[in-house]
Structure formats: C-alpha cells, structure tokens
Amino acid sequence: MKILQNNGVPIYQQVADDFREQIMNGKIKEGSYLPSIRSLAKDLKISVITTMKAYELLQEEGLVSAVQGKGYIVNPQDTEMMMEQQMRKVEAALSEAIKAADVAGITDQELMDTLQMLLTINREDV
C-alpha cells in the first residue's frame, strides 16, 4: 500500500480507498480479515487513530464488519451494487469538473484531452 503525504487526500481516505479497491477487485476475499489496526499503523508508519478511521469508514460502507477480539472481516459483497455506487461517485465528480471547466472557459475538447491525459498518467502509476 502506497501512502502519499502531500497529495491533498487524507491518509485515512487513502487507506480506505486502497482496501475498497482490493475488496471490489477480489484481491481481498470475503471472510478474510484485514490486518490488525496496530500492525497496519506500524507498517504504514501512521497513527492507530488514522487506521481506525479508515476501517470505520469501510464499516460504514458495509464492506467490513468488526468482530470482537478478532478485528475487521470482509463482508460478502454485492458487486453490482458496489459498482453502481462507484459509478454515481464518478458521475458526481465529472459533473463538478464540467462546472469548473465552464467557469474557467475550458472547451469541451480541452476538458476531454485533460481527462485522457489523467487517465494515462494514473493508470501508469498502478
């Protein structure tokens, strides 16, 4: 897991996003336990509170459940529902980008070129 300190995204969100992606892609299977809060905090050199906040976010989304004395376990996933939720987030973010582009006077072609460039850059980092 790669955590970026200065990218503007809170660390707990980066941790939750990484686990969410792994769960949705099947890299972490249902019934698997996430690393303990303390061990993950130690491995990533982040606070226990930050790790706990990430896990609580995943729990609020229904991706994991807390098991007393054992940690957090991955719940069975309705992948179609999860994909729909993610699509709504993408649509909302793109709508905001379109509004910002309109305010800035950016043309549709410039906006699409920017999106294409970002897709290329971000997919190379994976």
Would you mind describing this structure in some detail?
- By secondary structure, this protein is mainly alpha-helical.
- It is 62% helix and 6% strand.
- The protein is built from five helices and two strands.
- It has helices at 11-24, 37-44, 48-60, 79-104, 108-124; strands at 64-67, 71-74.
- It has a two-stranded antiparallel sheet with strand order 1-2.
- Helix 1 (11-24) packs across helix 3 (48-60) and helix 2 (37-44) crosses helix 3.
- The longest helix is centred in the C-terminal third of the chain and has 26 residues, at 79-104.
- The protein is elongated.
Annotate the secondary structure layout.
Blueprint: H1 11-24, H2 37-44, H3 48-60, E1 64-67, E2 71-74, H4 79-104, H5 108-124
Antiparallel strand pairs: 1-2
